[in-house]
Specification:
- There is one protein chain.
- This protein is mainly beta.
- The chain has two helices and 13 strands.
- The strands form three sheets. The chain has a seven-stranded mixed beta sheet.
- The two termini are about 35 Å apart.
- The relative contact order is 0.19.
Length: about 260
Amino acid sequence: MAHLSTPQSDTGHFTTLSVRPSNKPTPSVSRTILFPRNHYSQAPNLAAGFSALDLSCSSNRSSSPTSTTTTAVRANLVGHSITRTRFNLLVETWGRNSLLHRADATWIEHASGARECQFGQFDTRDVARRPGNGNSSGFDSSRRGGRGGGAAAGAGAAAGAAGAANGTRAPQPQEHTLAITFPRAFTSQPTVVVWLNRLDLRAGDEHNYRLSASATQITRTGFVAHLDTWGDGVLDGAAMAWIAFPAEKRRVASGV
């Protein structure tokens, strides 16, 4: 079944409640999203993020009293197979213990080649993967679910989720930052909005769920992206989409 993007011609919203109730959690929910008819001549750029999440983590039921299986709350938003008429949206969790009761997603569309707005993606894995290199972009259809990343127009996936879900994890840093360089410099300092689209937070009585996504040091040419936790929070992975646009752009409500 296809879901038509109805709020405005360049934005859309999806909730897993349109597919199944929150008291019947499933590992994943997917939907084909239709763009308004004849709106794009080629596949547009997309940025997407969570607007609501209802997650829980079941207790470790391992029969071994010495088991150290990691428990976590996890959610991932992926956009893929983007064409000029539609794209596929996937919301998922992974691992033995994480339960996804409900997720809502919001996205924004922008015509391919348009120069005013720029979209990108930052993943905590980018810090280790590309130290000192700040550009990470777009709904990457080649990176999905627990096997990859990708939602700046979509969602990142859990780093090492397939292998780490059944065992312990090494200590994780609490702060992840990366300098992002805009593909094209703006004429003045732009506004930057960030949307969280993947999270993997350690669960248990000794951990609280804490996660912050933000942009600082914004200039004409770039900014510093942050995905951080603090206190007793343990962040095993996260990703966010970012949207940059002229601060003086009319008829834009960014929520900042």
